[in-house]
């Protein structure tokens, strides 16, 4: 029986997918940083709370993506 795409990805055997996923995680982290900075600069606390929730969800998305990638740090 062959391996799944997921197991191939996790062992580093899918660089065609790994590289764009790492790039996506990096971009999402940059957006998270911008959202946090904007939320902390805002005087509107209800908006800041909503923006904080967005940043938290985006950070979770990065975490989920990175859990599927090999720990080696990429090809």
What do these coordinates show?
- The protein is 75% helix and 0% strand.
- It has 75 residues and is mainly alpha-helical.
- It has one domain.
- Helix 2 runs antiparallel to helix 3 (45-67).
- The chain is elongated, with a radius of gyration of 16 Å.
Q: N-to-C terminal Cα separation, in Å?
A: 26 Å
- What global shape is seen? elongated
Radius of gyration (CA) equals: 16 Å
Oligomer: single chain
The major β-sheet equals:
none
Give the count of structural domains. 1
Topology as a string of helices (H) and strands (E): HHH
Key descriptive features of the protein:
mainly alpha, 75 residues, elongated
List the helices and strands and how they pair.
Elements: H1 5-10, H2 15-41, H3 45-67
Helix pairs in contact: 2-3
Describe the structure in brief.
By secondary structure, the chain is mainly alpha-helical.
């Amino acid at each position: 029986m062959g391996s799944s795409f997921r197991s191939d990805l996790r062992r580093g055997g899918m660089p065609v997918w790994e590289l764009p996923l790492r790039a996506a995680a990096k971009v999402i982290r940059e957006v998270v940083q911008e959202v946090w900075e904007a939320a902390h600069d805002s005087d509107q606390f209800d908006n800041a709370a909503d923006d904080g929730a967005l940043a938290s969800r985006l950070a979770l998305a990065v975490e989920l993506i990175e859990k599927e990638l090999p720990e080696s740090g990429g090809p």
